[in-house]
Amino acid sequence: MVDDVESLLQQGWGYHDSNSAGLAAELETVDLSAIELTQAGALLKLSNHTIGEHLNDWPRACTLARQVWQAVDGAQSHLEVAVAVYVAELMAGDPVAGANAELAALAQVDLSDPTATIGVSLHCKVTLAAALVGSGSLAQGAQLYSQVVELARKVGVELSCDRVLAVTSNNLAGELLATEQLSPQQCELMLVSANAALEFWRRCGTWLNEARGLYLLQNVYNALADYQAALACGEQALAMLTSEGQGAESVDEVFVLLSLAASQKRLGLSAQVQASLTQADALAAPWDKIDDAGLLESFAEERRKVSTQ
Description:
Elements: H1 5-15, H2 20-28, H3 37-54, H4 58-71, H5 79-91, H6 95-106, H7 114-134, H8 138-155, H9 162-177, H10 184-204, H11 207-223, H12 227-244, H13 250-266, H14 270-284, H15 293-308
């Protein structure tokens, strides 16, 4: 039985794709008798993604979701649990149980406030859309996702789900960006979700969220061979990082510079490529003294991509 839930949640995302079966078994042996509400929501996000999407076993994911929901007394005080149960039930084929979970989620907000109820409904639907895409139902997931984003735009005011929309869009674009040999439909969804991530980060996030949203969109444009658009996003992100961050976010600056160099190289801007690489190398030089193999490996890989293009 897994007793250290916090460690499992922190480390599980690191190997959820490479050892989905192993992580699934660990998640199913978590001691639910003392689980906290915040841990319950995080656990179900991880289990739905790992068991439902990666292992494509939604009935199994649903069983765990029901057990967690019961352990926290129906999750009447935690929206994330109710949303995760809603998704698991629908994906497992039980629309009535899914509807009950959505009603439980709605019961947690002020029902006299239309924006609050819309926020919960869109939270449920965008999470379902991501699950559909992650499970291979691209057409259905993309259609639902687009409708959710469009409705959130039409509301025209800040919603409680804005951050969920930003994070979900960010993750969706990031996962597609890491996928090899995208179909035209996947490319379209990647661009739509990257633009939506930036839009909703601007509504609910900080300047750093916006800069990172621009960096994501920069990489998406590079992947789609729209190098001028990538260049524009990268320059905006770099300007924001240097003016707002005043050099404090050097890691972000380095990777934006490497992505800029990739765009510049494709556009034949040799002098600018060298300038971007020189600046990135200078900022990354102190990293040799820190104990972060993952960061050093990521830098070397991105730098190598520019050199071999």
